[in-house]
Amino acid sequence: MGHLQQRTPLITATVRLRDQVAHALRAALISGELRPGQVYSAPGLAEDFGISATPVREAMLDLAREGLVEPVRNKGFRVTEVNERDLDQYTEIRTLIEVPMTGRITRTAARGDLEALRPVAEEIVRAAREHDLIGYLEADRRFHLTLLALSGNERLVETVSDLRKRSRLYGLNALDERGELIPSAEEHLELLDLMLAGDAEGAEKCMARHLGHVRSLWAKGVNEDGPEADRAARTPAAGR
In the predicted model, is pLDDT for residue 209 greater than 80? Predict the structure, then answer.
């Protein structure tokens, strides 16, 4: 975990230390530096950051509320694991919700509301090309949830938001290094063009394909956390 301190942004007057630590921990989760199933203590991570344990513990509690980690009494926090069955079920639920809603929104949404999503879609592609994984996931989240919000159903948006948190990508950096995130990113622009053209059926097919594409990326990320990854996780830092 020695790289954590190097990746932590300098403390500024406008950004709380707690938020900076949470951001760095999310980056470590995405990159695979923090391993699923492993338990990390706040003092151990604080030592890597070169700060006190309090803001680290607070940041980990923030991540626990997002479902990224879970408290382990008297030990620290365990990075939550996602298995293939979970991912299949999350994808099935998202497909049941997002595919038909995409068609409905295509038919009912104002053109201006759809066009307002273009900068976000372009941001997703730009982040993928620039290897900005945090930016990629954040822009992707905003695109999908803002699109669904056009349905006017707040509970639906909350449901998909929760599913997205539970089905996050681990080891995303390996996929990024192979350039496999860019095709998925570009599908957002394709989807938006279909919706603006009023092609509800085509938009539904595009969304279904996109979710299937995302699921295949999840599968690669999970499969890469195999025996070799487990061995890598069993370093002295992993238990800290």
Answer: yes
